Amino acid sequence: MRKEIPLKGRSWSELEPEMETMTAGDIDWRHGRSPMYVFYTTDEVYDVARNAYMKYFTENGLGNAKAFIGIGQMEREVIEMGLSLFNAPENATGSMTTGGTESLLLAIKSCRDWTRANRPSVVKPNIVAPMSTHPAFDKAADLMDLEIRRVPLRPDHRADAKAMDAAIDDQTMMIVGAAPCFPHGVIDPIEELSEVAVKRDLWLHVDACVGGYISPFAKRLGYDIPVFDFSLPGVRSISADLHKFGHCPKPASTVFYRDTSYHDFQKFDHAEWSGGRMITQTYVGTRPGGAIAAAWAVMNNLGIEGYEEIASRMLKMAHQYKDDINAIDGLKVVGDPHITIVAYESVDPAVDIAQVAESMRSKGWLIGMSRLPVAIITMMSLLHEPVRAEYIADLKDSVDSVRATGNKAAGSSVNTNYS
Ligand SMILES: Cc1ncc(COP(=O)(O)O)c(C=O)c1O
């Protein structure tokens, strides 16, 4: 029978245990069992984020210009901190959004509308992107009737700038690179893509949704992080998620533009209806004031030093995982991941990676998978630090048992869903 709103309400003391029962079977993310979705940092950061979020839980980012001036100021400061981090020029600007997908939708909408205004010969716009580009681009294409041209990667799983150059035509409005891409955790050669963008006078968007708020700190620590920000002249927009490695609560992301004139095309402005004129900078209307306040608080709580300390621990952990995985006979890390996304595949025909995934699932680990190549992916946060030995032991055991029971790859189906 379909559930109805109960006639009589119940108190929190009754509801809380019922909700706990409902979620009891959910993935045990607190003990590192989830390969993505959750990014826990430290108890201190968690407390700061929760306190700030709950303090401004009721405020609405939609009213930042008129009603919640203080939340509006926090939002502007979050944007400015991001612009500084990405070496943006003086006239650059940006917006806070509800996530990577919204940031990408907005960058693409701004580019489309800028293209309409400045390149009228583009009537059927396309975006040239590496094969590893996040499906949020396809969502944007679906919404805005655009074409996405996915271009095969180089053998090191990074974007192939030459092949992308060759895929561009007179209807191309944007080219894309990731820093890093989701499936392999590698940063595309943005410097080369920037040269293509400058040569062709095209809009280059850098999808730094995952890596934006960790890569600059890893670079400062001496890790080999390719340049991907506004210091490259071809980069016109960057998306970077606060709710991933910015260590801020969901929903929070940022999108930045080299010049305010690009950002102007992001705005939605409508007066032709019964209500008053509606102007919004982003796609959504109501936005959680708590998420804006929490982002401001976390960034100020951590500071550069805090972000560096976390990046140091995370990168060290990721390198240990990579070494441990490569040391398991039959497994190999895909490419050379730059931050903490690690994908690994089987290099032994007797070891079906899909069966290894099944075995890991039966041991309580949620498993994310990629298709090209078929590999297991983990996007690690500090939650994965204390469980490394356990994970690696279970992985080794899974590989051994799959090898021992023979390769049944023909019958196995690879579940690559991560929705
Ligand atoms: C590279 C990349 N871009 C965009 C996104 C979309 O972000 P969100 O899930 O916050 O919308 C993701 C999500 O993992 C991602 O990895």
CATH architecture of the largest domain: 3-Layer(aba) Sandwich
Proportion in β-strands: 5-15%
Structural shape: globular
Listing every helix as H and every strand as E from the N terminus to the C terminus, the arrangement reads: HHHEHEHEHEHEHEEHEEHEEHEEH
Low-confidence stretches: none
Question: Briefly, what CATH class of the largest domain?
Answer: Alpha Beta
CATH fold-level assignment of the largest domain? Aspartate Aminotransferase, domain 2
Enumerate the strands of the largest sheet in spatial order, edge to edge or round the barrel. Answer: 1-7-6-5-4-2-3
Percent range for helical residues? 25-40%
* CATH homologous superfamily placement of the largest domain: Type I PLP-dependent aspartate aminotransferase-like (Major domain)
DSSP, total strands: 13
Domain module count? 2
Unique bound compounds: pyridoxal-5'-phosphate
- The number of helical runs is 12
N-to-C span: 27 Å
- Output the structural class: alpha/beta
| Biggest β-sheet strands, sense, barrel | 7 strands, mixed
Overall pLDDT metric = 95
What is Rg? 23 Å
